[in-house]
Amino acid sequence: MDLATILLAALLPADPGGASDSYFPADPIRIEAEDAALSGLTIETSRAGYSGTGYVAGFDSADDSLTFVFTSETGVYDMLFAIAQPSRFGSWTITIDGVLREGTFVGASGAFVERKAINLFLSAGEHELVLNAPGVEVDYLLLNPVVYDPPTVPTATLADPQATPVTRALLYFMHGQYGRQIIAGQQNLSDVNYIKSVTGREPAMGAFDLIEYSPSRREHGSNPGRSSENWIDWASSDAIVKLMWHWNAPTDLINSQSQPWWRGFYTEATTFDFAAALADTSSPNYALLLRDIDAIAVQLKKFDDADIPVLWRPLHEAAGTWFWWGSKGPDAFIALWRLMFDRLVNHHGIHNLIWVYTHQRTHDDWYPGDDFVDIVSCDVYADDQSATMLSDWQDLQNLYGDRRLVTLSESGTLPDPKVITAYGIWWSWFALWTGDFIRGVDQQYLTEVFNSDFVMTRDELPNWRSTVSIESVVAERKLDLSPYPNPARDEITFRYSLPESAPATISVYDLLGRRRASIDLGSSLTGEVRLDDNLQSGSYIAKLQMGSQSVARLFTIIR
Ligand code: CA
Q1: Which domains does the chain have, with CATH numbers?
Q2: Mean pLDDT across the stretch 485-503?
Q3: Ligand 1: centre distance to CA 541 (Å)
Q4: 536 Cα to the center of ligand 1, angstroms
Q5: Cα separation of 205 and 223, whole Å?
Q6: How far is the CA of 361 from the centre of ligand 1 (A)?
Q7: Does 470 score more than 80 pLDDT?
Q8: Do the beta carbons of residue 33 and residue 51 sit within 8 Å?
Q9: Residue 134 and residue 175: Cα distance in Å, rounded?
Q10: Distance from residue 33's CA to the centre of ligand 1 (Å)
Q11: Whole-number Cα distances in Å, 146 to 121, 154, 367
Q12: pLDDT value for 497
């Protein structure tokens, strides 16, 4: 994390909703089976090695039940039972707060051993757990809290070295935000407005589709109208814009009754061979690729002209192969991605783009490369409405998490922020797909999600544009500087150390980069110095400079 990222993080509300502070490691919960409520079961003591005053046996009917009532804190727990069982497989059913789960204990054992049943999220409060496990003897229940760390924040770099200041500011802001709150997005302007009307909160990010600007659709009469202008108006100077493009193939549309022209972004609706086009830069079809990218450049330029950065997510879900840009394998796809990058960035000079690549599980060889991608995303359409998408998150974290933000660019279900963050899942943003996907979400639940402390809505966005002036302040670690106490309620003191005896200065800047104080130090190698300046409440940077070396630290004054 560079200093600019830290500083931008500091611009977030002082208490980010308590979001990442909510999950302290809870204590394990252990309950002896013989202390639970038994139905059709008996307490035994003949098998040695139990804890407490005995163990529970006699599961021989589906009506038998062992009921535990316990109180937990909010968080994720591994649920284990200390059991003995004569056979290798012992099936179980667990009803937790009325929800039935089923599984199997694996491994015969004459001694009591802890076997994990499930891993689950529990809200703070009282819970009821009912166990039935034929042939299994139960010594105790153990719930072990599992703490998932928030993600590593990667270094904020942009694939486009000429990215505009506001584009850099947005990415830096998003890096600072990562692991603290998830930015609320939504596909489609009418659905953004729907969420606002239902929940009272507006998504911070609008996700829009340039589909109707595809030249081959316009040739068939589609009319995007003033879509770009409307999105620009909506975004104003505060909201975040994400654009995608269901690129209708430039030519060779099948255009039959079953594959009409307007399905032309699907592989099955076109015979267009873009790999062949790319292989011959003098071919008419290559020229058509450029024609289409150029048409989209016109739209992207409008955002640039309005000084609105764009999270640009073209050529999505390629490895799924259902879109034509994924129909010719990874090499052709990567070539097309890089052509688009070069055409937009270098040829057209569009420098307001943050490039978002959509990864498909197991297709790791489709990645266009760090020089062409800023953020890596996935689109997840789960069957289970309560899906956590943990494995999708972990997959992206393992592949890209050390160097790119990871996000949920599309989903068919709305993950519960309080549950997924307990699992350490901190997508940069989420954006539910349009239409029935969003309209079908229970409105009370929708309201909870958009009012969650873990979710950042439009009204909660800080002025991320103003933060870019801090960029020039770079942390180095050759000197050391430590403000204390931090935060400080009245006066702040700086402890410092120097690598050699030489003149050095501590300067204090506010977050707009204005110098507010300066202290010349003696030449002792270590020391401390008090700041005699009544700074107002807020966050500041203290920068220790010695010759060409410097180190900067953030501190906060609270009055
Ligand atoms: Ca026991």
Answers
A1: 3-17+478-557 (2.60.40.3080), 27-146 (2.60.120.260), 165-472 (3.20.20.80)
A2: 82
A3: 57
A4: 60
A5: 24
A6: 44
A7: no
A8: no
A9: 51
A10: 5
A11: 10, 24, 32
A12: 83
What pLDDT does 25 receive? 63
72 C-alpha to ligand 1 centroid (Å) = 20
Question: Which of 195, 291, 184 lies closest to 239, judged by CA?
Answer: 184
Give, in degrees to the nearest 5, the angle at Cα 221 between 217 and 224: 70
Ligand 1 midpoint to CA 53 (Å): 6
Of the candidates 550, 530, 548, 544, which has an alpha carbon nearest to the alpha carbon of residue 496?
544
Which residues are tagged catalytic?
317, 410
- 204 alpha carbon – ligand 1 mean position (Å): 52
Rounded CA-CA distance 254/460 in Å is 47
Q: What is the mean pLDDT of residues 503-531?
A: 85
Identify which of 373, 433, 357, 397 has the alpha carbon closest to the alpha carbon of residue 191: 433
Closest CA to 558 of 532, 540, 543, 541: 540
pLDDT over threshold 90, residue 137: yes
How many angstroms does the Cα of residue 56 sit away from the middle of ligand 1?
7
Amino acid identity for residue 230 in this structure: N
Question: Cβ neighbours of residue 363 under 8 Å, at least 6 residues apart?
Answer: 319, 330
Quote helix, strand, coil % in the chain, to nearest 5: 30, 30, 40
Going from the Cα of 118 to the center of ligand 1, the distance in angstroms, rounded, reads 20
Q: What is the CA radius of gyration of the chain?
A: 29
The four Cα atoms 172, 205, 152, 396 give a dihedral, to 10 degrees, of -130
The residues near 180 (Cβ < 8 Å, ≥ 6 apart) are 9, 12, 16, 19, 20, 150, 426
Distance from residue 248's CA to the centre of ligand 1 (Å): 66
According to DSSP, residue 67 is labeled E
Dist CA 215 CA 19 (whole Å)? 45
Q: Which amino acid is at 248?
A: N
CB of 327 within 8 A of CB of 321?
yes
Which structure tokens are listed for 537?
């409440």
Q: If you search the block for the tokens 């055409």, which residue do you land on? A: 343
Structure tokens at 229: 């202008």
Q: HEC profile for 445-489?
A: HHHHHHCCCCEEEHHHCCCHHHHHHHCCCCCCCCCEEEEECCCEC
pLDDT at 473 exceeding the cut of 50 = no
Assign residue 388 a region (left: φ > 0; alpha: ψ between -120 and 50; beta: otherwise). alpha
Give the C-alpha separation, 53 to 339, whole Å: 72
* Helix, strand, or coil (residue 153): coil
- The answer to pTM > 0.90 is no
List strands edge to edge, sheet with 125-132. 37-39, 65-72, 125-132, 89-96, 99-106
d(CA 149, CA 523): 42
For residue 451 the two structure tokens come to: 């009012």
Spatial contact of 461 and 239, defined as CB atoms under 8 Å apart: yes
Length of the chain: 559
Tell me the C-alpha distance between 336 and 341, whole Å: 9
